[in-house]
Every structure is written in C-alpha cells, then in structure tokens.
Design brief:
Its EC number is 3.1.1.3. It is a single chain. The protein has 408 residues and is α/β, with parallel strands linked by helices. The protein contains 13 helices and nine strands. The strands form three sheets. It has a five-stranded mixed sheet, sandwiched between helices. The longest helix is centred in the C-terminal third of the chain and has 24 residues, at 284-307. The chain is globular. The termini are far apart.
Amino acid sequence: MAARLLLSSLLPLFLTFSSSSFSPSLQDPSLHKPSHFLIDAFIPVAGDGQPSTTAAPIVAPLPVLPPFPLAPALFVLGDSTVDSGTNNYLGTFARADRPPYGRDFDTHRPTGRFSNGRVIVDFLAERLGLPFVPPYLGRSGRIEDMIHGLNYASAASGILFSSGSDLGQHISLTQQILQLIDTFQQLEMDLGVAAAADFISRSVFYISIGSNDFIHYYMQNTSAVLSLFLPWEFNQMLANTLKQEIKTLYEKNVRKVVFMGIAPIGCTPHYLMLYGSKNGECVDEINNVVIEFNYAMRYMIDELNHELSEAKITFCDAFNGSMDILANRNLYGFQTTTEACCGLGKYRGSIMCLLPEMACSNASTYVWWDEFHPTDAVNRILANNIWSGEHTVMCHPMNLLQMIDSGH
C-alpha cells in the first residue's frame, strides 16, 4: 500500500512532458580532465584462484589520455544505452533529465544519460582523446560543435521505425541516419568535399540499438508481430534492415563502425520482477532470443566486412560481456546482480528512477542502476572490453584499439 501511495504521488511527475529547465553544458573543461577513481576489483586469493571477499579494492588512475586524438571524431547512433541528452528535447516518458540520474556523472547533474554516471561512449571518447560527444538536437550548427562528433541516440528507439512509440516521441535509427547525413552535408560545406570525406572515413561510428525492438515491439506483440514472425525470422529481418543502413553509411564514406549487441535483458530487474524470478534467476525465454539476435548481427557484420572492401566493422557482444560480470560479481566488486539501485517493487524493477529517495547510497556496488540500465561501474568495464578486451574478449573481428591501430 505504501508503494502504491508513493507511486500515485510520482505519476504527475512521471507524466510531465515539458522540457527540463536544465540545459546540459558539455563544454565544461572539468569534464575532460583525468581524475582518479576506485576500481571495484578484488585480488584473487593465491593458490585457489577464488576471489577474495575481504580484499581491499584497488585505487588506480584513469587511463592516461593520448596527447592527441586517435580519431578525429566519434559519432553515436542508438537508444537509451548511449543517449546523452536527445530525449531531453522530446515529449516522451523515456527521459533521464531529473535527479538522481547523473548524480555520479562528472558534473553531478542529470544530462539525459540513463545512468548514475557515464555511459559507455563517454569512456570510449576519453580513450580516443576526445571530449564527451554532445547530442545532435542540442547543437548550434557551428562547425566547432560537430568537429569532434555528435550523438544522435534516442531512448526508446529501435531498428524498426515503430519500436518504442508506446513511450512517446523518439528518433528511430533511420531518422538518426538522416540527421547524420545532414551533418555530413554541413561538414562538406565547411571543410570541402574531399576533406569531409577524409574526416568521415577516419572517424569512429558507434551503434548500440536493438533491445527496444523486443521490449517495446516484439514482446508486446505490436501489430500482431508474433503471428507473423518466429523469433529467428524477426531477428533476421532486423539484421537485414541494419545491413542496409550500414551500407548507406558506407556510401557516405563511413568506414570504422562498432556495433554493440544486446545485453541480457532477461536478467534486468524489470523482467526478473515481471516473470516472477524467485531467486534472481535470469529469464531464459528472453535471453535466448537475445542470443539469436546477437548471432544474426555478428554473421551480418562478417558479411559486410567481406562485401565492403574498405570497411572495418566490428561486433561487440554485450551479452557475453555482461554475463561475465554477472557470473563473477565478487571479482568485479559488485554486491548484487539482481536488484536495481533505484526503483520500486521486487528487485526494484517495477518503475524507472523518479526521485533521489528511490536510490541506493552507493551505486558502484550494483550492476543495475534502474529497471533496465546498468550502472556507471558496469559501463566502464564494458567500455574497457570494447577498447582492448581488458577483462574479456567481446569484440569480433577486432577491438576498437586494434581498429584504430590498423591505420586509415
């Protein structure tokens, strides 16, 4: 009853579509200075190879930033896993522009990122020697605002145009690509056609999308999709659609692409709660479909690398990377892999994070920040895997560092 009363008091806030008065400023130099953080890893006990639950966490510096950018720019396409503020400008339920979102971010303020802190592309931008990538919808149109890249990702978006429409406005992958092509045209006007083509070919493009095609489309049986497609047929349709989109980008001189597969959404607090998981067991029915999706995407990317002579496209398996964290939580310093830091209900999976009072005190010991999204600590681990396979090999046929080192 208490939870129901709290929920009823939160609904007016949750249903408010008006834009927040907070306008994220990513030009603050403090965002890009190296600092120290706590690595939540524990030293294995010598001899038995088992992680120690009493060892002190290691204090280590952030990776040393390169003296010059390793790529001219980072462009980001996708959904809430990498949204850096796009949905702040849209009328949608899918918003992260209020506390406690962003409380552990560099500015300690909400920016529209669906995390307590950074998302994966923030860590990758740092590795590349670039500033954090600002949202496309917040740009001024000046060359200075796009020369290091832009973020087009929109929470709730999917590969299919209709995915996520139940939450309100969003920008689908196709629309994001149109925005990206508009940026290319602006670069051509400012830099010249030849210089813009060279700039684009040396830049990195990061795509993280697909989960909403299941969460907000297939599993909701939108447009009677369950009667039209078996899971493997639906996955093949998504793979074919994405393949054509990447080919469109290739025709615009895009060469270096990182595609992030879907994480184990069957292990998220939302589905643990919804499917009545008794002891935090993941929902295999959902995860099996995710595994099929990732397999289809990896096969499709292998095809593209053979078909497109100058392409350097890699697939990073978010499922395997995340399951490694879930299976070895003590090694990574997490106390729980099932309950979200912020939310209501069992596993705190019944509603997204709406008020600071709903959040735990220390998100770094949690795998999940809210009902669907991982914490900053998990994003850092996955980013390190994408960059160099630091903890486990996630990317095939190459990690991002190998892509950069392979030349232009």
